[in-house]
Design brief:
This protein has two domains: 17-260, 3-Layer(aba) Sandwich (Aspartate Aminotransferase, domain 2), CATH 3.40.640; 266-392, Aspartate Aminotransferase, domain 1 (Alpha-Beta Complex), CATH 3.90.1150.10. Helices cover 38% and strands 14% of the residues. The protein has helices at residues 17-29, 44-56, 67-78, 95-102, 120-130, 147-156, 208-217, 233-236, 252-283, 314-326, 358-365, 378-392, and strands at 60-64, 85-89, 106-110, 134-138, 160-164, 172-173, 176-177, 184-188, 201-205, 290-291, 298-299, 304-308, 332-333, 367-371. The strands form three sheets. A seven-stranded mixed beta sheet has the order 1-9-8-5-4-2-3, with helices on both faces. Strands 10-12-14-13 form a four-stranded antiparallel beta sheet. A three-stranded antiparallel beta sheet has the order 7-6-11, with no helix packed on it. The longest helix has 32 residues, at 252-283.
């Protein structure tokens, strides 16, 4: 028996020294609010926006208070109204339907495939039946679908696509940066995401009017010319007096922490890939355990790991999770009857209509998930895989 794993599944790496130094400078001068600047100062938040626009190749970028706020702001910028249907993956996390519901709109869930991506056939059927004009596409746990097919389907059914890239910052599909297919993309900088400011988010778009609406919604107080990657002042003229302030700005302290992490992100993605590859190697060829197929065009950010036990009854999975936990391996089970911590499914969100989605139910029933923080080594992942393998073979 491999023994006990002693690592911590929620312990992130420390903030880089460059981020700590920049944060201390902000604390020393006291100008934390993004628009509170000295005469010759650009500000950390504006600089982060410029750097993130360059990192993604987007025309415009906006730094905000959270990834969930970015999602709701994207919906408001597009003009989603109360009662309007908005399509989204059935396999996602609560902030995605929560952003839809926060506007009084209706989440309409779409089936999930064995690859943990949106089912494009069901998307087409549901788009037609619902009359929805917006798809909030969640790249849940880093699993991106064939984005060329998604955009063709969206075009055929008149869907505007908002990409939830909370789990794909730094990833690509078909050589294209994640978030560059839809009209707007939203990212998270919450502690368990790919760059860490505790809470925070980013929004990108190539559409000048959408960028201006989002900036005004975030609470620019007509100081939008101080943003780092926004449209020209002329774009704001027709919008500034009719767009409500739904304040959700990022502050200079969080931006200071994030900028060095963004610069390091490509190297971090490579480190996550090594951890994820070690997990796949350690769990291959188990008769009752299914790994998740990856599209060959996908460069995934492997900050979490999923597998399925499709033949196991719920009681057996619960026992398996408990046995792994007793040996220090923390697994989250998407088939649990009630939401636990961050882990929930569309059936747990009573504020949204619960459709009949047998394919998603089948997949979620046996789906296990765990974090792979960069405080883990490849050897740690080899030990974790051994423990999972031993318990799965019992």
């Amino acid at each position: 028996m491999t023994g006990q794993f002693k690592g911590n599944f929620t312990q992130q790496e420390p903030i880089p020294e460059a981020g700590i130094s920049a944060a201390l400078e902000v604390l020393r001068h006291g100008r934390l609010h993004r628009y509170n600047l000295a005469d010759d100062e650009t500000g950390e938040t504006a600089e982060l926006e410029r750097e993130f626009a360059a990192f993604t190749g987007a025309s415009y970028a906006l730094a905000v208070a959270s990834g969930g706020y970015a999602l709701a702001t994207a919906l408001r910028a597009i003009g989603v109204k109360s009662g309007e249907p908005v399509l989204t993956n059935a396999f996602t996390l609560a902030p995605v339907p929560g952003a839809i519901a926060s506007l009084g709109a209706r989440p309409v869930f779409v089936e999930t495939t064995d690859a943990l991506t949106v089912d494009l056939d069901h998307l087409a059927t549901t788009a037609k039946a619902s009359g929805a004009r917006v798809l909030m596409l969640s790249h849940m746990r880093g699993h991106q679908p064939d984005m060329d097919r998604v955009m063709r389907c969206a075009g055929e059914h008149g869907l505007t696509v908002i990409e939830d890239c909370a789990h794909t910052m730094g990833g690509t599909w078909g050589g294209v940066v994640s978030g560059r297919h839809g009209a707007i993309a939203c990212y998270s900088t919450q502690t368990y995401k790919h760059i860490n400011s505790g809470e925070g988010g980013l929004l990108i778009t190539d559409d000048a009017e959408l960028a201006a609406r989002a900036t005004l919604l975030s609470g620019s107080y007509m100081l939008y010319e101080r943003n780092g990657a926004g449209p020209s002042a002329q774009v704001f003229e027709a919008l500034r007096d009719v767009t409500p302030n739904v304040s959700g700005r990022m502050d200079n302290l969080r931006a200071a922490i994030l900028r060095p992490q963004l610069a390091d992100l490509p190297a971090q993605v490579a480190r996550w890939s090594a951890l994820h590859d070690e997990m796949e190697a350690g769990l291959g060829n188990l008769p009752d355990l299914r790994l998740i197929d990856r599209d060959p065009g996908l460069v995934r950010v492997g900050s979490s790991f999923q597998f399925r036990l499709p033949k196991h009854a719920p009681e057996r999975i619960a026992d398996f999770v408990a046995r792994c936990s007793a040996r220090g391996v923390e697994l989250k089970w998407f088939g649990a009857p009630r939401a636990v911590g961050f882990t929930s499914t569309y059936r747990h969100w009573a504020y949204a209509e619960t459709p009949d989605l047998p394919q998603t139910d089948r997949i979620m029933a046996g789906l296990l998930d765990m974090r792979l923080p960069l405080t883990f080594s490849v050897d740690d992942c080899a030990q974790i895989a051994c423990i999972i393998r031993e318990e799965a073979e019992r």
